[in-house]
Design brief:
There is one protein chain. The chain is an alpha+beta fold. It has one domain (4-469): Alpha/alpha barrel (Glycosyltransferase), CATH 1.50.10.10. Helices cover 42% and strands 7% of the residues. Strands 10-11-12-13-14 form a five-stranded antiparallel sheet. A three-stranded antiparallel sheet has the order 3-6-7. It has a two-stranded antiparallel ribbon with strand order 1-2. α1 (4-12) packs across α9. It starts with a helix and ends with a helix. Mean pLDDT is 92; it is low at 1-28 and 273-279.
């Protein structure tokens, strides 16, 4: 068991470095590449071409919507005719792979900040839903309208409703923090945190984004009641989750660490030239780290299952969450012993054939479906379609990362299957090809939404990190 002192020492390390230091589960890790260099190069070029296909420049239209009137370059969740708007979570999940140019990142950061709801009173919508202060839109239209709920591309007047939650999805704020964190850490531009979109400093907007997420009374886990539901994670927005929420809690955990690092960098910049002050960390940053450490322990206690996986929630749709378990390992949201069991659980499930197909990953293991008719207890999609049992490439890198901690050859097999399927269906071969797809299923060889951004950018970022750690 990790000592409290080690927990505390880890908490003082900037989150990006913490992730690298904590990643290896073995004393003498295998140095064999998980993918050959030519495959990594091919995947990087594919990702760059998908990023280009997702790009919508000023004045351009896509998917029957437009033109883009925002005066900046936007990125859709994919190419061709699907998802004609700027989805913030998909973009935030794509910046890690390093393929979004700096001159595009800064205007997009400012757009998201200016689109955030700010103020003490929530905005009440005709649908009965509300937008509390600190909420970040689900997506922004080509006309620059903020849409806070899924279910519509641009119907601002009728957004929300009981189907989509009482409040906006709970991942928007943490993903906003992440895209700012990645920009500041990689660019060194700390001054951006004092910019004031629409009169509110960016750093205060980040504070509001973290504070907007509803927590249970002990403050250690995100919780929603059925009538006050916010979506757990946008890649499961067609699923009803209630009670304590795994994925939203993991994202909040990471957001606290990342905001703490941003506050430290801001403090160091403002105290530059005054070494007598000995500034190491702000009290606010220390508090955020303490809260994140408390969340780490609570996540394991609240969601841990005997097989090492984590439950998606404690209320409705409390099935084992493959994505959430893998992402929790990826951002080190669990104590070391629990993380190890999660890695072993994912490796075992992959070896048993219950979570993957052609290198893509299911939300729920096939042997843990809620019923014969549905993977999740409550979902808008039919079984084995979309988020209710289809297979996705977005989390492939997270799962491979976890498996690699306990069985590198098995992780390499997963990535081999992933790349082989992409090569076979590569969208650059012509209109009859669409890989990377959003999701797919062997039943009827079903596919949905071609040229999908996070199906390649998120795995590439994970592979890049695994290579750095190797």
């Amino acid at each position: 068991m990790t000592s409290p002192r080690l927990e505390r020492t880890r908490s003082l390390v900037p989150f990006t470095a913490f992730a690298l230091l904590a990643a290896s589960c073995t004393l003498f890790p295998d140095r064999t590449p998980l993918l050959p260099e030519d495959d990594v190069a091919w995947l990087t070029k594919l990702a760059a071409d998908v990023v280009d296909a997702a790009r919508v420049r000023e004045g351009e239209s896509a998917g029957g919507h437009g033109p883009n009137l925002t005066k900046i370059t936007l990125y859709r969740p994919g190419g061709r005719d699907d998802y004609p708007a700027f989805w913030i979570r998909d973009y935030s999940m794509s910046v890690d792979c390093g393929l979004i140019p700096w001159n595009d990142q800064l205007p997009l950061l400012r757009l998201v900040a200016a689109s955030q709801a700010i103020g003490p009173q929530p905005k009440l919508l005709p649908s009965g839903s509300r937008v509390p202060g600190g909420a970040v839109p689900d997506h922004v239209t080509f006309a620059g309208k903020s849409i806070f709920f899924p279910g519509s591309v641009d119907d601002e007047a009728h957004q929300g409703g009981s189907t989509w939650g009482a409040i906006p999805p709970l991942d928007g704020g943490p993903f906003f923090v992440h895209l700012v964190h990645e920009y500041v850490v990689r660019s060194g531009d700390v001054a951006i945190l004092h910019e004031s979109p629409n009169g509110t400093e960016l750093v205060d907007r980040l504070r509001a984004a973290v504070a907007m997420v509803p927590l249970r009374p002990d403050g250690r886990v995100v919780r929603v009641e059925p009538g006050e539901r916010g979506i757990n994670f946008g890649f499961a927005d067609a699923v009803v989750h209630t009670g304590d929420l795994l994925f939203a809690s993991i994202l909040e955990f990471r957001a606290k660490f990342e905001l703490a690092e941003l506050l430290d960098r801001l403090g160091h910049k403002e105290m530059a030239g005054r070494p007598e002050l000995g500034v190491k960390s702000t009290a606010e940053a220390e508090l955020l780290r303490d809260e994140a450490i408390a969340m780490r322990r609570a996540l394991a206690d609240t969601f841990g299952l005997p097989n090492g996986l984590m439950a998606a929630s404690t209320g409705t749709s409390a099935q084992p969450d493959v994505w959430g378990t893998a992402f929790g390992v990826y951002v080190h949201a669990f104590p070391p012993a629990v993380e190890r069991r999660a890695c072993e659980g994912l490796a075992s499930a992959y070896a048993a054939g219950t979570i993957a197909w052609r290198g893509a990953i299911r939300h729920v293991p096939t042997d843990a479906d809620a019923s014969a008719d549905s993977a999740w207890e409550s979902s808008l999609a039919e079984k084995n379609r979309y988020q209710n049992g289809a297979y996705w490439n977005t989390p492939t890198g997270w799962v491979a990362n976890a498996i690699a901690q306990v069985d590198r050859p098995l992780a390499a097999r997963l990535l081999r299957e992933y790349v082989d399927d992409l090569r076979a269906g590569d969208f650059r071969k012509g209109p009859d090809f669409g890989a990377p797809w959003e999701c797919m299923h062997p039943d009827g060889d079903w596919r949905q939404n071609p040229v999908y951004l996070t199906s390649v950018t998120a795995p590439l970022a994970a592979i890049q990190r695994l290579e750095r750690e190797r």
